[in-house]
Amino acid sequence: MPRTSIEGKIFATTLASIALGSGIPLLLQHTGVSPLLAWSGGLLLALALGLLLLRPLTRNLNRALESFRGGLLNFRDGDFSISLALNRNDQLGELAELYNEVGEILRRERAHIHQRELLLDTVIQSSPLALLLIDQREHIIYANTSARHMLHGGRPLQGHPLKQILPECPPELAQAIQSRQDGLISYLDGEHSQSLHISNSTFVLNAQKHRLILLREMTRELTRAEVQVWKKVIRLISHELNNSLAPISSMAHSGKMLSEKIESQQLAGVFDVIAERCHHLTEFTQGYARFAKLPPPACEEVSWSALIARIKPLHSFRQLGTLPSRPGYFDPTQIEQALLNLLKNAAESGSTPEEITLGIETDVHGQLLSVSDRGAGMSDRVLQQALLPFYSTKPQGVGLGLALCREIADAHGGQIQLHNRENGGLQVRLWLPWPRKD
Predict the structure, then answer these.
(1) Is the pLDDT of residue 238 over 70?
(2) Can you give the residue range of the structural domain that contains 287?
């Protein structure tokens, strides 16, 4: 249906008024009225008629413009939910349709942006990367879940001044944030050494300068990288030693046979010592090789009572509490080896056998095996390095027992923790997760 224009309506109304204003004086003159009076009356009547005809048009026009004004005010306030109901067959009706189309587009765009913001916020909140956004007044205006747990015990951070939060952080971390340091930092968190990578960036948002702080936990990554380097060194040393020990052992055996032919007891004793040391070195390198080539765990359901029965004859300990009803799930050979190493360390700590305990607990998240003793415990320095390969405080130790336990825990997706106990002694907690449900 063709649209009529407002200009056309006004022109038609005016033309009708003029036609009536011209026709009425002519009619009055035919009735004998004087021309001056006839034209004066006709013009007044035409003017009144024109105003009467234009009134509905101007009233509808004012209503339409008021509707547009209200809609545009809503747009200015960010409200795109209002649509105009103007059923007009003119330019204002066409303009109302365009207004409604623009409003619908803006509503869809806002919904799309809102969904993207929700997705971005969900990703940021679930990220292990701690994120802080600081405004130019040094107030925290945004912090994700990792930042809240790392810096404020899980409590909200938004709105707090940065200087109010920093005293609750470890001094090294607080100093790094305060001085806008970039790079790796290390600090002692209780009895554990932690490593973080911190980065600072500055940008302008809403004409104000903001600072973005990113904190990434690097302890596990650095530990894994360190262990991989140690494994590579161990494999290289083992390879070179084995290449040398094999011919030395063979030559010692041949030398001993020759000494027996010439009946030289002293020379035979020398070759026996050489053969014995070669055998000792071979076993020594094989021990390191087992650490460097730990196979992936072959996990299965394991009876706790069967596990206790296998390790009980090898080391004396006292079992704490009752065993869980749910079977364990892990590689039985590797976990048995880890427990034997921990019980051996407990026995060598100076603790009496009656005070060495093994506790087993389970919950919905995983399995916790705890070995405790009443020995000498560990100093802070030893606790920081006890899980490193080759580190040992024992005169004859090789530094592989706890390192192997950590490797086994990591291979299972778990972790191992060492804590000094009150009133003396050490507790080692080996936590293993349940298998993931697909």
Answers:
(1) no
(2) 236-292
